[in-house]
Amino acid sequence: MPKHLFKCSECIPERGEHAVIKGEGEDLTDALPLGYLNTIPGSITERGCAYCGAKHVIGTPMKDVIHMSHGPIGCTYDTWQTKRYISDNDNFQIKYTFATDVKEKNIIFGAEKLLKKNMIEAFEAFPNIKRMTIYQTCGTALIGDDIEAVAQEVMEEKPDVDIFVCNSPGFAGPSQSGGHHKINIAWINNKVGTYEPKITSDYVINYVGEYNIQGDQEVMQDFFKRMGIQVLSTFTGNGSYDDLRGMHKAHLNVLECARSAEYICNELRQRYGIPRLDIDGFGFEPLSNSLRKVGLFFGIEDRAQAIIDEETARWKPELDWYKERLKGKKVCLWPGGSKLWHWAHAIHEEMGVEVVSVYTKFGHQGDMEKGISRCEEGALAIDDPNELESLEAVQTLKPDVIFTGKRPGEYVKKLGVPYLNAHAYHNGPWKGYEGWVRFARDIYNAIYSPMHQLAMIDISKDEISKENRFLTQRLISDASLSEDVVSSTTLREYTGKYDCLVGIRDKEYPHLESSEKITDVV
């Protein structure tokens, strides 16, 4: 497994320890890329900080909470509305963000009075919200503001409110992963066990490491409900502050994202004796195995199998349709920590794509080890790449599509490569059986999109021939596809010629016989 030094990083030779190419039959322990280390000066990292990992990833998905950042306005603005952590209380936690807006004078003279003033104003502005989390930032941590004391003062003055303090300034770890750890431990130390929840089932779980991106949590919760399982709390997607205080009453911790939330699971096991069971909601086979494991724990395997049989029969034919058309397409898998290994094997086995590169900006070596072990030989694995390294990798590997975040995604598009937002999804949710088909559809549409093909034409020098005209325009102008004369034969002709028109199958033409609806044509 040879180490790989990018040409653009030859002036920083230490970066050669942070990238490897997977070789044939090699032992992963021989040459893993270094990971979760302090950023090398000059490498221009794109990592998030520990504050971001605590507030943005773990804290913000809690729905009935005022999330207050004690620091400059830029910290809270940078962590606002960049992920689709939806909730069933009208997305309160996404609509609003709160900050004390610390200025230079506050750094000099202290900002505790400013913090208290902002906390009281926030509770008065939203009288129905009685819970608050305060996040420490670098500036106020360096001057030593005692936010725990201020929080206690406010709770004494307002007995009906409860406040959680998260001391996770940006410098508290090498990357956002340090913030995951900080808020996990702070929550179990200060809030778990302070509320007694109502138990309504013989089978009770905490669903941990789930953030309800575009409804992921709701999909999985539906499976658990159909099995007769009570989800006591979700840490933290669409999670209620008080429900999360009652995590100690669960019978089992079901863990999805091990990178961000294994810490609290391990502490719950040690302190309260609650077992931990790792699951995976992505992919037909991983999800089926996960439901079976949960069913086996509670002795209700038959309920799990009934769901698996029903969902597989409904959605597997559609997944196979996409697999035929995605087979052999090259993918750069550049998401967050756990998706690196949740997806690598599943998208290859169930969608037919070839993973040519994996990377993580904040993952540990354990994440990289699992990710590398599940992708194909020759794959390039990179820890904490910067923009230039990413661009060089794209130019070398020539992938068909990239799964990554919005910032890298925007600049790879300039190289003519489509991307899917691995952090917030394009058209999620992607968990569950239907969600996995939806993911395959998004990959298909990204690769075959006529809009993307048109975008690669340089109108300053490339002649646009009739054959290159935008396909939608051709459909509109083609009389054979008008509403009056459209037929299943014509549609078969077009959808067979242009695979990228698969989206048309979702539309139904009312004048066709039910047997000839578009959904039956493709």
Automatic annotation (TrEMBL):
| Pfam families listed in its UniProt record | Oxidored_nitro
Keywords attached to this entry: ATP-binding, Iron, Iron-sulfur, Metal-binding, Nitrogen fixation, Nucleotide-binding, Oxidoreductase
Name the enzyme's class: oxidoreductase
Tell me the cofactors it needs.
[8Fe-7S] cluster
Recorded catalytic reaction(s): these are: N2 + 8 reduced [2Fe-2S]-[ferredoxin] + 16 ATP + 16 H2O = H2 + 8 oxidized [2Fe-2S]-[ferredoxin] + 2 NH4(+) + 16 ADP + 16 phosphate + 6 H(+)
For this protein, the record's Gene3D superfamilies field holds:
Nitrogenase molybdenum iron protein domain
The GO terms describing molecular function are: ATP binding; iron-sulfur cluster binding; metal ion binding; nitrogenase activity
Q: Which family does it belong to?
A: Belongs to the NifD/NifK/NifE/NifN family.
By its UniProt entry, which NCBIfam families does this protein fall under? Answer: alt_nitrog_alph (TIGR01284), ANFD (TIGR01861), N2-ase-Ialpha (TIGR01862)
- Name the record gives this protein: Nitrogenase protein alpha chain
Species this protein is from:
Clostridium saccharoperbutylacetonicum N1-4(HMT)
Q: What gene name is listed for this protein?
A: anfD
